[in-house]
Amino acid sequence: MINRFITREIKIGEIGIGGDNPIRIQSMTNTNTMDVNATVEQILRLTDAGCEIVRLAVPGIREAHKLEEIKNELIKLRCNVPLIADVHFNPEAAIIAASLIEKVRINPGNYTDRNTGKVNFSDVEILASKQRIKDRMTPLIEVCRKYGTALRIGSNHGSLSERIVSQYGNTPEGMVESALEFVRVCRELNFHNLVLSMKASNVRLMVYSNRLLVKQMLNENMDYPIHLGVTEAGNSADGRLKSAIGIGALLADGIGDTIRVSLTEDPVNEIPVAQEIIKYFDNEYSVEKIPEVDHFFNLPHSYQPRYSDRSVLNTGEKSPLVLGSKTNPEEQKPDIVMPDGLAGKNVLFIHGNNAVKNDGQPNNQIIVFEAVREHALFEIKEFIRQNLKAGSEAPVILRKKYSGKNFLIKAALDFGPVFLEGYGDGLWIEYEKETDGENSVTLSFQLLQASGARITKTEYIACPSCGRTLYDIQASLEKIRKKTGHLKGLKIAVMGCIVNGPGEMADADYGYIGMGAGKVALFKGKLLMKKGVPEEEAVDQLIGIIKENGDWCDPPQQVTSV
Length: 562
Ligand code: SF4
Fold this sequence. Notes:
Elements: E1 10-12, E2 15-17, E3 24-28, H1 36-49, E4 53-57, H2 61-76, E5 83-87, H3 91-98, E6 103-106, H4 123-147, E7 150-156, H5 162-168, H6 172-188, E8 194-199, H7 203-219, E9 226-228, H8 236-253, E10 258-259, H9 270-281, H10 293-298, E11 321-324, E12 336-337, E13 347-351, E14 366-370, H11 377-390, E15 396-402, H12 408-420, E16 426-431, H13 440-450, E17 459-462, H14 473-484, E18 491-495, H15 501-504, E19 510-514, E20 519-524, E21 527-534, H16 535-548
Parallel strand pairs: 3-4, 3-10, 4-5, 5-6, 6-7, 7-8, 8-9, 9-10, 11-12, 11-16, 13-14, 14-15, 15-16, 17-18, 18-19
Antiparallel strand pairs: 1-2, 19-20, 20-21
The structure holds iron/sulfur cluster (SF4).
């Protein structure tokens, strides 16, 4: 059973978050907020799908005022879904929004100070910067208090302020402190209608910053609800896997009161994924919900992988291996083809249902742990706990057989949080029946990449887009994927807007970022290479830049079956 981090209940309109409330599902529109009809239409589709809270981009004052029209239109259509205004760089827009809708999200990284390239801050400058937080927050809090509006203080890894980065680095510590500075001001002003979030495109970083947030909240006697999400997760299988692994790892810890699965797709597609993630944990929560403070203090918030003796596997691969029962010439090959791949090796099979205790195996042995529970994460974690306690260095292959179809999210939740922590030497997923478009070996490689355990292809950091996006990001991402998917290890960011894109593209090697209607800016790392490129030409120009910088190789020849 999971004991949840007990948070206080806050109300977003009629919806309760935190406390005994179920985990709530959020999403965000990607329409232009000035287009009331399109925005209302998308909000209705989201709520029909099961979305409980909807966020909208509010880049400026005009959009903030538009919220009133959107809200009124929704009320006319008998839709009272709570709305959140997403505000960056614009305290005035936040104040207007706070008087019109149920919640405002601000980013502490850009609410008070704009970045100027400054690297070092004196004590006096730090104090002045903190005072500015209070000066800027006080009017917003008073409006929130007057209208019963909630506030989300949401740190994003890519957009911490220069002052925070100079003090704490671009780290989970920096993300947590960035938000808590604002929270302390709210508490001084006796305002507690707060939700906090720590988001990053790097799944491990997102998980660690949230765990650290809980630890720090416990230290400071705080109990604010937490919103979870992996930003810039991308689309298709990769986006779903990253979101499920990051959000799932934290829900398994008992952390999280609302979730958003960000996909660079129609936002309606996010809802069934979020529902499936929540369903996985539905029956795992402890009825008594006793806060296990020690548990939260002991959750790792830095990477401490378990090193086993992988030489017994004899493949030369240092990262976790993929095992597979069959090979399809058109699909990626597994590292070890089963059932013969482990022949002649000293293998101990442990079946999840067996009472066999793992008391520590000789190091020349390979352990294959077969999970059998519907929700296998918990039995795998228990096995790992025993194995670590026994001090075994034997490599461990984690295995599960799935029947039925659509295993993507289930497999991500079963195994992702474990590989994310640097545990597991091999993954052996089997389907009772391979169905069209699903392949267990492909899924295994994707799952290992999404959890940061093994990189075998290009990594895409793509934002879900929002009202700030003025080009067809979904089509561009697909085009870029098709042309660059073979560039193993290269990170390419595809972002919707120039306001947040460059900061939030994290440590991408190349960036493709929206810059005005139908125009794109191209980056090499943080360096702007070209701007105002028409979107029809931008993918080819991006490839040109990749080639000029020596990071290109031709795609492998397609193998065609005869
Ligand atoms: S980076 Fe993407 S999601 Fe973030 S503000 Fe810009 S367009 Fe919106």
